[in-house]
Amino acid sequence: MGRIGDTRVRQFWDPEHAISAAMKTGIKIQPECCEQDGVLWDVAAAYPPGALWRETMPEPSYIGGPVVKNQAHLEVALGKAPQ
């Protein structure tokens, strides 16, 4: 959680893989990096302002991972220049 110090960032520990399942069924863009044994892991997703999760997860404006290798891309998606 300390890698991206931005109040808009949320990190989830998902032991039941509920977020992973929702992402796999609810969004069109799938990350090519982060699936293991059918479960998405270590995925970063950025959403446009005002995006709300209703019946399905909103489409992210950016998705990628693993997070440690994509910090700069995520910061750009959040409108921040990499430090």
Tally of extended strands? 4
What does the main sheet amount to? 2 strands, antiparallel
CA-CA gap between termini? 16 Å
The total count of helices amounts to 2
Shape: globular
Secondary-structure element order, N to C: HEEEEH
The portion of residues forming beta strands comes to: 5-15%
Helix content: 10-25%
Q: What is the strand arrangement across the widest sheet?
A: 1-2
- Give the number of domains: 1
**Structural class per helix/strand content?**
alpha+beta
Instruction: Write down the Rg.
Output: 12 Å
Give a quick summary of the entry.
The protein is of the alpha+beta class and 83 residues long.
Furnish the topology, listing elements before pairings.
Layout lengths: L17 H9 L8 E2 L2 E2 L3 E3 L15 E3 L6 H7 L6
Antiparallel strand pairs: 1-2, 3-4
Please, could you describe this protein's structure?
The protein has a two-stranded antiparallel sheet. The longest helix is centred in the first third of the chain and has 9 residues, at 18-26. It has one domain. The chain contains two helices and four strands, in the order αββββα. The radius of gyration is 12 Å and the shape is globular. With 83 residues, it is an alpha+beta fold. A hairpin with a 2-residue loop joins β1 and β2 (39-40).
Descriptive key words:
about 80 residues, alpha+beta, two-stranded antiparallel ribbon, two-stranded antiparallel sheet, 2 helices, 4 strands
